[in-house]
Each structure stands twice: as C-alpha cells, then as structure tokens.
Q: What sequence folds into this?
C-alpha cells in the first residue's frame, strides 16, 4: 500500500514539474501556459497560450494557492480584449477575447500578440474565450477572496462588453446563442453550427458568474436585469427542449410535423425520421442527456461530453437530469470512457455523413480528434460532475484509468479509436491541458471544497418562458 502511495506521489510530482515547465513569462511574471511542449512536432500555434486551454491549469494553480499567475493572466488578457464595433472583415467585435496569445521579443522589448481567429484554421473567432474568462475571474475571486480585482472599472467594463456581445439584438426567437461551426473546443467543421450545447451551457454559466461579479452602480443594474431575464428563459429552454431520455424519445417519435400556433408539441418541427437508428437501443432505461444542438427542423442527437458535464456543474441540468447523465456514463462506460476518459462526442460521423458534414476533414476522420476522439482534459469536468452528483466512485475509476496510461504515453492531446485505445494520430505529446486535467481531477477528489471554484448551486432565476 505504501509503495503504491509513494508511486502516486512521484507521478504527481512529475506532472507538476511538467505543468511548471509550460509556464509563459511576460516582463518576468508568469502569465499563462503554452498549449504543448512536444519536442518532436512543428510548434504551429501550440507554443501559444490559449484562453480555453489555460482554464484547467489556472484551476490547478488556484487550488494550490498559486494565484499570481491567474491574476496576471486575467489582467493581461483583459488588455487584449477587442474594442472594435463589430465582427466584420476579419476584425474582432467589441468584447471578444482572443483565442490565444504569445509573448514576442523585439530587441529589449516584450509585447503580446493576440489571435482572435484571423490566423486560425478557417478564420473562425472563438465564441467561448470570453465566457471562460468570466468563469475564471469568478474562480479567482472565490479562491483568493480578492473582491477588488473584478470591481475595478476596467474589469466591470470588460464584463459589460462581453455581455453586449452575447446579449446583442438578433434575428432570433430563441434565448440561445447562434454561432458558426468551429467556434469553441470543436474548432473545425463538425456540423456544430447554430445552437451547440457547449456554447449554451457556457453562456448560462458565464451569465451566472456575471450576475455575481457585476456591481449595480452606474448602468450595472440594467445589465443585471438583462442577465436575470435571459438566465430564466435560457434555463427553461435548455431543460425542456434539449433533454433526451426514453420518455422524451417516445414523444419525438410520435410527433406530428408542420404544426402551427403556440400550443403545439413539436415546436421546432422535428421529424421522427431524423431519429438515428443507434439511439433507440443505446439509451438506457434510467439514463439521459442534453442533445448536441437544436434549431428549426433540426435536433443533433449526438452526445457531447463537455456540454453535458458543464450543465451538471453549473446546475443548468436539474438534479434529476444530472443523475441521469451520470447513469448514462455508468451504463455506457465502454463508449464514453473506455481506455481513456473522456470521449468528446458519441457516436462518430462516418461514411457519406462524414464527407458531407466535415468536408472530408482528414484530421476529423471517424473516431479521431473531435470526431469521437477521447480527450484527457475532460477528466477534470468528469470529476467535478461526479463530485457534485455524489458519484465519486465513477471519478475514482476514471482517474485510475487515466493515470495508468497518461504518464507512459507522455500526456497526449487526445486518443483515437472507438474506445480510446490508440494515441491520437496527430496528437501532440506533453499537452498542457492533459496534464492539468489530471491534476485538477485528483485535487477535486482530495479537496471537495475546490468544486466551489467552478460550480453553481441551483439557480434563483425567475420563471422561464416557452417560445
């Protein structure tokens, strides 16, 4: 027993050293972490700090009292926030946070260069960066008790710019956010355009965080009212229309199409023929999940892990729904956890569907990368969701699986195959968020109070409304 404990301590020390080696410094101060330290691959943009990638690293630092790097990150990325009026002609809109940044040296000078998507593959701006930034600001405040930072005028203005970007008037009857393909963690064409679950959940969580961080003075009370109104309608919309279990599936199967008026069952005109063949047998009796996307005449029945896990953590999913999602993981363990937690989406797009939806993307081949790959970074979200639902045994088993492979495999970015048995075909090794994902997951179990940094209690939003 002692030998096993010593081995785990040595492995954790090794992971910490890898994480510390990934730190980026700016004017002598820690400011973030590089995406990967793969000595064998072309760096591309993996030598930059991505806002979404830094989140698990930041949480690890906060959990261990190393708060300076997170504070510096929040201050410097706020300075990078766009103040342009609109997203147009490769110019980022006001409130947009960059996808990534890097430190550039010129003579004796150091400065930061940000990428808002204008250099990214397919030139898609990151919709999720600003939401992760708000969540990280809240986590920093909870970890440190430093209330002054978020209350500085520039931080209050930064939050409001993000809300202006997210709550903008638009051609839509839905409370959800309309976004293009490739605008979040799945940053390549995967048919996730329109109203993808991950963005809606992050949107909800960031609104919850903003409601805690914003001051009511000046025009703050107007923003708080708008946030409260959207929170109620968004929660109602997601819980009622995105939810899938056998009861709900039976309702969709018997839907009538082309109904008109307010009081209709099939509000989105979903046709029962669109239910995929795999789903009926795959859904367990006591399991369910939030669908990947929903729009006019369209429901994406794929299971997306990050959106569902974050829905549990943020209390967007009800307690009953949260337990059903964890039941799904427990009963479809081989599909969703397999040999390396956690599968990003299930099932993979294959054949003609893969060709049409991904544009024959050679990186998102079936059961690879975003198209059904297994991502170790999602382990921290799984551990947090398990902690919140009281399903600790699931997190313990997932962490044990990850530990058995990650160190010897040198912390790959992702794994391939139906069950995550192969190191990703083009995966970088020593991927920082794979390292941080394991450390954060272990700390969440070792110190359950750490969950407060990222989780929300059942909301006190006003009643939602139907469309």
A:
């Amino acid at each position: 027993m002692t030998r096993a404990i010593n081995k785990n301590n040595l492995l954790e020390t090794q992971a910490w050293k890898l994480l510390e080696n990934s730190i980026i410094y700016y004017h002598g101060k820690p400011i973030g972490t590089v995406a990967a330290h793969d000595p064998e691959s072309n760096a591309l943009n993996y030598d930059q700090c991505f806002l979404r990638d830094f989140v698990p690293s930041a949480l690890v630092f906060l959990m261990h009292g190393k708060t300076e790097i997170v504070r510096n990150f929040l201050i410097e990325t706020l300075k990078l926030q766009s103040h342009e009026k609109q997203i147009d002609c490769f110019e980022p809109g006001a409130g947009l946070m960059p996808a990534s940044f890097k430190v550039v040296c010129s003579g004796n000078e150091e400065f930061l260069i940000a990428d808002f998507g204008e250099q990214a593959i397919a030139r898609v701006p990151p919709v999720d960066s600003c939401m992760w930034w708000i969540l990280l600001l809240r986590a920093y405040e909870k970890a440190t008790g430093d209330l002054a930072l978020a209350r500085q005028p520039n931080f209050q203005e930064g939050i409001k710019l993000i809300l202006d970007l997210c709550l903008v008037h638009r051609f839509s009857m839905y409370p959800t956010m309309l976004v293009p393909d490739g605008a979040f963690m799945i940053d390549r064409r995967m048919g996730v355009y329109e109203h993808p679950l991950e963005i809606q959940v992050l949107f909800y969580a960031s609104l919850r965080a903003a409601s805690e961080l914003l001051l009511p003075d000046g025009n703050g009370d107007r923003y708080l009212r708008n946030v409260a109104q959207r929170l109620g309608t968004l929660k109602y919309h997601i819980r009622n229309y995105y939810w899938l279990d056998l009861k709900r599936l039976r309702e969709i199967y018997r839907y009538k199409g082309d109904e008109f008026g307010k009081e209709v069952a099939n509000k989105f005109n979903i046709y029962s023929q669109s239910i995929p063949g795999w789903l009926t047998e795959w859904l367990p009796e006591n399991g369910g999940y939030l669908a990947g996307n929903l729009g006019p005449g369209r429901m994406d029945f794929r299971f997306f892990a990050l959106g569902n896990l974050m829905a549990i953590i943020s209390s967007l999913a009800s307690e009953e729904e949260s337990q059903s999602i964890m039941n799904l993981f427990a009963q479809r363990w081989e599909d969703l956890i397999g040999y390396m937690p956690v599968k990003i989406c299930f099932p993979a797009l294959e054949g003609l569907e893969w060709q049409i939806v991904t544009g024959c993307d050679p990186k998102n081949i079936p059961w690879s990368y975003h198209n059904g790959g297994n991502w170790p970074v999602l382990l921290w979200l799984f551990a947090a969701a398990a902690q919140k639902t009281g399903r600790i045994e699931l997190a313990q088993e997932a962490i044990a699986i990850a530990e058995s492979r990650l160190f010897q495999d040198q912390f790959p970015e992702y794994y391939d195959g139906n069950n995550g048995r192969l190191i990703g075909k083009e995966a970088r090794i020593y991927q920082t968020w794979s390292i941080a994902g394991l450390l954060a997951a272990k700390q969440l179990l070792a110190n359950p109070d750490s969950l407060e940094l990222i989780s929300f209690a059942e909301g006190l939003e006003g009643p939602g409304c139907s469309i």
Observations:
- Residues 13 and 157 are 40 Å apart (CA to CA).
- The two ends are 58 Å apart (CA to CA).
- The chain has a mean pLDDT of 93.
